[in-house]
Amino acid sequence: MKILKLIAITAIALSLSLNAADHPAKKGFMAHLKAVKASVPALTPQDLMKWNKSGKKFILVDVRKESEVAMGTIDADNALKITRGYLEFSGILKNQLPIDKTIVIYCAKGARGALAAKVLIDNGYKNVYNLTGGVYAWLDAGYPIVSAYGTLKKVPDSETGLEQ
Q1: How many Cβ atoms from other residues are within 10 Å of residue 152's Cβ?
Q2: What is the count of structural domains for the chain?
Q3: CATH of the domain at 69
Q4: pLDDT for 11-42, tens place per residue?
Q5: Domain boundaries, position 9
Q6: Is 91 in contact with 82 (CB distance < 8 Å)?
Q7: What is the pTM of this model?
Q8: Between the chain's N and C termini, which has fewer beta carbons within 10 Å?
Q9: How far apart are CA 96 and CA 82, in angstroms?
Q10: Alpha-carbon Rg of the chain, whole angstroms?
Q11: Closest by Cα among 80, 93, 160 to 120
Q12: Residue among 1, 65, 21, 39 at smallest CA distance from 130
């Protein structure tokens, strides 16, 4: 019985130490992501709203998963939903994203958007931007999203009584 307890304690300790340590692949990927974000042109939520209001022509591409898209999307005249996993196949190979158009990519927080924008740039697209901070930054800036429930905006915690 003591041996089983010792084995269980050792296994738990080993598991915790492995999870606590940074995996080499994680460090490499985080460095890659940082470089990608630095290399891709960024567009702030405020700039995107100005573009939207001014009538500037662009294609807004939401690369989030369907379950994330259900929470709501940014409204634009020319908006597409192409999940990050299908960007190369639907966007490029099926020509849903014309190479000569201005494209703005967004995701939840900006990382997948940057990676998606980099893929397009690497494949010859010239006018590609990533929405800095994704849809969460858009909401934090006070801008609306559209969902099956209508147009929604983030309400400050101070107005909900949820402030802590």
Answers
A1: 13
A2: 2
A3: 3.40.250.10
A4: 555 555 555 456 788 888 888 889 989 999 99
A5: 1-34
A6: yes
A7: 0.81
A8: C
A9: 9
A10: 21
A11: 93
A12: 39
